[in-house]
Amino acid sequence: MIKIPKSFEKKYRQLLGDEYETFVEHFFIFAKDCVRVNTLKTNVKNIEKKMIERGWKVEKVPWYENAFFVETDDSIAKTEEHFLGYYYMQDAASLIPPIVLAPLPGEFVLDLCAAPGSKSTLIGEMMKNKGLLVANEKDPKRLGALTSNLQRIGIKNSIVIQRDGRFLWKLGMKFDKILLDVPCSASGTIITNKSVLKFWSEKIVRRLSNLQKQLIESAVKMLKENGVIVYSTCSLDPEENEENIDWAIRKFNLKVEEVEIKGLKYRNGITEWNGKNFDGDVKNCIRIYPQDNLTEGFFICKLRK
After folding, report:
1. Comparing C-alpha atoms, which of 74, 90, 75, 95 is closest to residue 31?
2. Residue 301 catalytic?
3. Which of these, 124, 149, 178, 270, has the minimum number of CB atoms within 10 Å of its CB?
4. CATH (one of 3.40.50.300, 3.20.20.140, 3.40.50.150, 3.10.25.10) for 92-304
5. Which residues are within 8 A (CB) of 216 and not within 5 positions of it... i.e. 6 or more apart?
6. Tens digit of pLDDT for each residue in 61-92?
7. What residues contact residue 291 under an 8 Å CB cut-off, 6+ apart?
C-alpha cells in the first residue's frame, strides 16, 4: 500500500483540483515501455520488423517518429539489438526535452546534467555526430552509465566531463544550445518509482529549487546570444518549475518561446501559485501529467537569450 504524505496530498489537491484522484490512480498503473530506435546504426522499419517477429505488440509514439511503445513479457533489454545500441529504452516523456531543444549538426551543444545519457544520446543522434556535444555530470558514480550509453549508441562527437554544473561557466565555454534537465524531487516519476513518496518533502523541493536557480544562472552565462536553453524536470512542483522560470525571466531577461508537440497531450504552465503571480509568458511552458499519456510527468520550457 502506498502511503501518501499529508503535505503531498494537500499540495497536489490544490494544484490539480478535480483531477487529483485520477492522478493518484495512476500511481498504480504502469507507464508504457518505450523503445527509441537509434538511426545512427539502423532504421525504424528494421527494428519494428524484429519486434513484431518476436511477438511484441508495438505502437508508434505519437510525438516522435523513431520511437515505439512496446508490450511484451520478454526482457526488452536482453536482446542483441539493445546490446549493440540499435535501440535505447527510456520513458517516452523524456524524449521531449531534446525534441524541443532541436539540436542541429554542426552546433555546439551542452547537456549540463547528463547522466545516465538518455537525452545526451538522442541529442548526439539528432546532431548526426557533427558539431560538438559536451555531456557534463557532477556525480562520479554516474559517469560510467553516461559514457557507456554514449559509446553503445555510437555518439562520436561528444566529450564527457565531470564538473559541478553551477561553476562550469568558469571554463569560458559558449554554446548554441543547452539542455538543462536539472536534479529534482522527481514527483512526476511516481508512476514508475513509488519510493519517491518516501523522500518527497517541501524542504527538499525548496532546497532543489535553489540549486536549480544556480544551474540556470550558470547555463545563461555559457549561452551565446540568441541561443536556446531547454529547462526540464520530472517534477510537477511549481517551486521547481514555473517559479524558477519566472525568476529567470526577471533576472536575465530571457524569453519563453511557445512549445508545440503534435500527438502529445500536455497543459500550459501555471501563472499563479500560493499567491505568487508569475510572468505571463510562463504559460508557454508545458506540463505533462502521468494520466495524460501513460508516461512519467514532466515540465519543459524553451528559453531564448
Report:
1. 90
2. no
3. 270
4. 3.40.50.150
5. 180, 229, 231, 244, 247, 248, 252
6. 999 999 999 999 999 999 999 999 999 999 99
7. 19, 22, 23, 25, 26
